[in-house]
Design brief:
Diaminopimelate Epimerase, Chain A, domain 1
């Protein structure tokens, strides 16, 4: 399936066992080479992330890959898209999903909106992770960015004008900064009001994307920690708007999603990867 959340687009592979059958082994194996090939926008399908739905202890288990074939423990917009698909399939308005990030709750909010609890943010240097002990609120990098973990690492810069930053040049430099041993997602954020943020994002292993759910959560958490906003904010991205609410039980993200089409990868394509 091809899906997107605010233009942050995904290929979703359904690897669940057919209903009534033993879960058993998955019907196919996703390798980094397969993920990278499907992710190519000219020779494959094209995506920002690939997500695999499999059987799990909850309603489903989700695994995520970046466009370069690397694995990511979290992907907020993809989780929201898949949650909408699974709720429409089951008729349920709530879901319990599992990921490498942990257990995530999802809820139908009506009017085409889906909310997902992305869990508690990781604020300690070793959880994010960073290379060594340091203050995660203000990293020793020009601009004093804030580090946050949402199951994947983030580096958020607060600036007066996001339009003045060349993200295409700036993003890869920070993604590969030595303070982040697993690389990092990079956000450039501008505070519009105490409940309103404008943000652009460079995703590790992908590049500039129109939106990012985990990046929006990380930016909202960073802004609240710095006293720039409250814990409930609107985040405007290049592709649209997400609503983030950092509650006692985790960071809730709400927004729209779209299921664009369903299809089948051809045997010729798959054989070409062998």
């Amino acid at each position: 399936m091809k899906m997107h959340g605010l233009g942050n687009d995904f290929v979703v592979l359904d690897a669940r066992a057919p209903k009534g059958e033993d879960s058993g082994p998955p019907p196919f194996t996703v390798t980094p080479a397969l993920a990278k090939a499907v992710g190519h926008r000219h020779f494959g399908v094209g995506f920002d992330q690939l997500a695999v739905i499999s059987n799990g202890t909850g309603d489903a288990h989700l695994t995520f890959y970046n466009a370069d074939g690397s694995v990511s423990a979290a992907c907020g917009n993809a989780t929201r898209c898949i949650a909408r698909f699974l709720m429409e399939e089951s008729g349920s308005s709530t879901l319990h999903l599992t990921t490498d990030r942990g257990d995530l709750a999802a809820q139908d909010m009506g009017d085409g909106l889906t909310a997902v609890n992305m869990g508690q943010p990781q604020l300690d240097w070793d959880e994010i992770p960073l290379a060594h002990r340091m203050d995660t609120l203000a990293l020793p990098i020009d601009g004093g960015p804030t580090a946050t973990g949402m199951g994947n690492p983030h580096c958020t810069f607060f600036v007066d004008d996001i339009g003045a930053v060349d993200l295409e040049q700036f993003g890869p430099t920070i993604e590969h900064h030595p303070l982040y041993p697993e690389r990092t997602n990079v956000q450039i954020a501008q505070i519009i009001d105490t409940d309103h943020i404008r943000m652009r994002v460079w995703e590790r292993g992908v590049g500039i994307t129109l939106a990012s759910g985990s990046s929006s959560c990380a930016t909202a958490v960073a802004a609240a920690r710095k006293g720039l906003t409250g814990r409930k904010v609107r985040v405007d991205l290049d592709g649209g708007t997400l609503y983030i609410d950092w509650r006692d039980d985790g960071v809730w993200m709400t927004g729209p999603s779209a299921h664009v089409f369903s299809g089948t990868l051809t045997r010729d394509f798959l054989d070409g990867l062998a």
